[in-house]
Fold this protein.
Amino acid sequence: MNVNISFMRREAIKSCLSKSPKTSLNLLGIKYFTKYKSKISFHPFSLDIEPTVRCNLNCKYCQVPGWERGKKVRDLSLIDFKRIVDQFPNLLIIKLQGMGEPLLNKDLWGMIDYASSKKIIVRTNSNGTLIDESMARRIINSKLTAISISLDGATKETYDKIRRGAKFEKVIGNIKTLIKLRGTSRLPRINVWMVATTENYSEIPEMIELCADLGVDKLTVQTKLGFWGKEDMKEKLEDFLLDINSDELKRIKEESTELAKKLNFNLNFYYSNWYGTDSKCPWPWESCYITTDGYVVPCCIIANPEVINFGNILDKPFKEIWNSKKYVEFRDKIKDNEIPSYCGGCYL
């Protein structure tokens, strides 16, 4: 059967999605389908859509620097964005994010407007370097629900070493400008995302204090570094991976949690890419990642059609891709704990 959502139910789910996407998707019955079905009778309710693979930075842990794909693939156009979105009748939420810096795509604002006109929640990410006053006004006046700004260090020394090409003081100033211009408005939510590694995890408490002082809405700390399903990236990042079971990391997490409570600040440790045989990845049933050139990739953790893709949504209807032999076999492997090597980074 096809799943149709009434207007009232859709609005209720949207409200819940903005606070807790995973809970909302479970309300839609995703858990049932994850456990039992390899062919799916409904389209995803959420998508990650990549606006560009271009980036103005040369970050230490990223696959984009030196990536040939980043040099040859064009930005996603508004026309193609509409062609993609129009294939998802029950779409509730879009994250406009990917391997590049979304604010580099001149059509980003048209994408936000188009999705919002269809009552879709829209979020995006940014490295924060391009958010001058003019850009900040554009963000505040858009219909974005939230923007997450990457900040991988609470000090200039640490941040500048990791986010090569960016300047700590400039990004902090840009965040201040964004928050000042938002004023008392509730939206868009202005969040910070920190990828914790051996080089910066000791600064998590300082990051909480910094974010609380800036007035951002939430800090998310990701303690498990992904390698996009590529063995060469895994080897490159080996020295920066945290021992997630170490006493030192546990101590810092406890200290950070207590500090956040004391400051009445919203701190979140990200565990959504921590899977195991008893907690399988739900992405193949819930969502997918669509690249700038239209390839359907399993998730944003891989984010690379050269590693694995199921076809191109600009060449073939999504409904054919979603239940293709290749996608069904992929779901079967996840269900049977035959985890592909490119998915291994998310499994404990």
Notes: The CA atoms of residues 92 and 120 lie 5 Å apart. The chain has 15 helices and nine strands. The longest strand covers residues 189-195. The chain has a mean pLDDT of 90.
